[in-house]
Amino acid sequence: MGGVGGGVVSEPRGTSEPVLITEAQLSYEEQHAARKRKYMLMMGLRFPCLILAGVFYHTWWLALGLIVLSIPLPWVAVLIANDRPPRKAEKVSRYQREARAIEPTEHRVIDG
Question: Can you tell me where the transmembrane regions are (predicted)?
């Protein structure tokens, strides 16, 4: 089922879904859901780091490393959660006309 101007190239056999020929970005809801998953994962890593620091308190350098690792996690998680992907640079089609002078001839000044 080829269409004109509808964005449909052909219909695959056995499905009624059209084939999308554009490279559209993810919807806002999908982007937001992906950012929420990243945020929850990073915030979920902070608590185990603090628990492991308590478990390894005899090995002070490992406990200190885990605590230091857990300190910037909330900040980084918020930065990642609030950051949307950059917009794609699109070449804007603009009307270009050739540059011409308004009056191409020279003017002579006559003293009277």
Answer: 63-81
For residue 7, is it left (φ>0), alpha (ψ between -120 and 50) or beta?
A: left
Residues with Cβ < 8 Å from 26, sequence gap 6 or more? 34
pLDDT grade for 83, boundaries at 50, 70 and 90: confident
Structure tokens at 41: 């994962």
Residues in a beta bridge with 20 = 8
Instruction: Of 73, 89, 79, give the one whose Cα is nearest residue 25.
Output: 89
Q: Where are the domains of the chain?
A: 28-82
Q: What's the mean pLDDT when you consider all of the chain?
A: 76
Question: Quick one: tokens of 88?
Answer: 């794609």
CA atoms within 13 A on the CB side of 96: 3
